[in-house]
Amino acid sequence: MKEGRKEGTKEVELAVSVSRKTELSGGGEEEERSSLPTSFEQIGVITKYEILNYFRSRRFFILLTIALVIGATLTGIIGYYRPSSFLSSALSFYSQWWGMSVTFVIILSGVFFGGDAISGEFQNKTGYFLVGNPIRRSTIYVGKWLAALCASLIVFGVFTAMTLGNAIYYFGTSVPYQFWESFLFSIIYIISVLGFTFFFSCVFKSSSMSILVTIVLLLFGFSIIQDIVANVAQIEPWFLITYGAQIIGNVLSDPYPSHKTTMHIGRNGTGPTFTVYNATIPEGIAILLVYFAITAILGLVLFERKEFT
């Protein structure tokens, strides 16, 4: 109930702000046109108030705490046990720390900030405060997406700072170029995940349903589908967003993993065969960008057509 009241208060503030920007100062038709804010100005207002809403809510600080706990746990384990797999080289350190955990942080960011960004407006009926103003739904959609991106980048930046702090402590300020490539791919993955979560947020009118579906698919569902498709159908799972995201960790391996690897389990290779596919860097980037473009556009189309009933 408290969260719903906060959402309602936020929408009232946002609606009032947009309304003030669209009030006419009194005059002719030309003055009316000149006094109306542009779509970019309206996007800025929505983005600003959505970010403020994130800062006021518990979810931002919960996710920030999760990122800090992950970083602190890894810091304590490495400092106490000194595992050779982490400390053999700078690249292996980034591969073990960053490659194993950053995708988890990104998925949580997408779910926390995008999972109910639109569906919450339908469930709590707070969307009425926005659509009653002279503002396009596409403007609302883009503003909310940009706010979710900003909040996700803040959490991502904190986790990156913890990663670099530990790496510099053990290996000095020389950072392998592969890490910066992985860093760039991670930002692309954030953008793609937010497009994906916004799509499902527009599909459902229930916040809990949209959050549940996206977190299950991104954390478990796609991984299971990828294993089944690769080992049973012997097909490269190029159509899965998590398959494209493998480049984040793979680029930290030297050499880069081969595109297709076949392993035989059992004595003398007579056991079952397992096939592992690894997306190439151009392929992975293409998958992530296409996922963002398709899901973001479909989400916008659904949001434009869905009624607040």
What does this structure look like?
This protein has helices at residues 2-22, 29-35, 39-56, 58-81, 84-87, 90-114, 119-123, 128-131, 137-171, 177-203, 207-231, 241-244, 247-250, 281-305; strands spanning 260-264, 273-277. It has a two-stranded antiparallel sheet. It is globular. The chain has a domain at 2-21 and 33-206 and 296-305. The chain has 309 residues and is mainly alpha-helical. The chain starts with a helix and ends with a helix.
What keyword list fits this structure?
mainly alpha, 309 residues, two-stranded antiparallel ribbon, 74% helix, single chain
Compact summary:
This protein is mainly alpha-helical and 309 residues long. It has 14 helices and 2 strands, in the order H-H-H-H-H-H-H-H-H-H-H-H-H-E-E-H. Strand 1 and strand 2 form a beta hairpin.
